[in-house]
Amino acid sequence: MRVHRLDRITPQVRLVELRDPDGRGLPPAEPGAHIDLHLPDGAVRSYSLCGDPADRQAYRIAVLNVPGGRGSGFVHGELALGADLTISPPRNNFHFDDAARYLFVAGGIGITPLLPMIRRAVNKGADWVLHYCVRSAAAAPFLDDLRALPHGHVDLHAADEGQRLAVDELMASTPVDVPIYCCGPQRLMEAVAAAARPDQDVRFEWFTPRPEPARQDFADNSFDVVCARSGITVTVPAGTSILDALYAAGVEIDSSCEQGVCGTCETTVLEGEPDHRDSVLSDAERAAGKTMMLCVSRARSTRLVLDV
Ligand code: FES
Questions:
Q1: Residue 33, domain extent
Q2: Which of 182, 286, 297, 304 has a Cα-to-Cα distance from 76 of 20 to 30 A?
Q3: Residue 42 resides in a domain
Q4: Among 204, 210, 15, 192, which Cα is nearest to 110's?
Q5: What does pLDDT average to in each consecutive run of 10 residues of the chain (308 residues)?
Q6: Contact, 142 vs 111, CB < 8 A?
Q7: Do 192 and 117 fall into the same domain?
Q8: Which protein residues touch ligand 1 with a CB less than 6 Å away?
Q9: Pfam families given for it (predicted)?
Q10: Number of domains observed in the structure of the chain
Q11: Dist. CA 260 → ligand 1 center (Å)
Q12: Are residues 6 and 82 in the same domain?
């Protein structure tokens, strides 16, 4: 992919537009999707797509300049217009479903996956409210674009003006039929998760592992994994991930973050009860138990049968 556009849209955020160098159409990307950027030093970093999902000619990402960050150091320090980059096809762990009304909660650069969702909501004529938490209005990416969109409004919470979001009040006043999509700093997402009622539909995009409640049961036990396609059975000892145990047995599974946040190693579960420890699946998806992330999740049953 070639860098077709490289703009500074706030003092600390660069917008990168990528296109196929031969002008070929790109794989579709639904709102909430992200791509992995393969950095020249071999590291891989995930970025949410923030462009128009209907645009099959370009992918857009917005990258915050994070001190010491490898991806942001590359994008802000080395990347040039016309450079060629390797990316993975879009992957979506942050699914956007149809509804009549939406609540969006963004913190800073966490607006990126929400922007295509808000555009989709606008196109469908749905009502929406965005609570946008930023350090200052000048540091809020896409603020003018968002304010220009119909059917909804932006409540800006600028820390430099003392406008903090009252998360508890917001969650308490949000009806259960309004899905809530949230992305931003860990502290904001933890506050939203803590204030959510059990009957509310709240979805997050975690780019660092989601904090798990303390576990009293199902510590790192040993269990068997049956690989349905090859028919082999692999014992996963305590302290070893399913991914590593399968790799040692010659079964290679695609992986990227190995922290349970990117979704690359998501695998279909045919039998058995997973012990989910990832930050990708929603509570409903966890309860359904149809897939699991092999890099971090384990088993509650003594045996899992996986579609590998
Ligand atoms: Fe990223 Fe497993 S490798 S979720």
A1: 2-87
A2: 182
A3: yes
A4: 204
A5: 96 97 96 92 88 94 89 93 95 93 96 97 97 94 96 95 94 97 92 94 84 59 94 94 93 84 90 93 88 95 96
A6: yes
A7: yes
A8: 255-258, 260-265, 278, 280, 293, 295
A9: Fer2
A10: 3
A11: 4
A12: yes
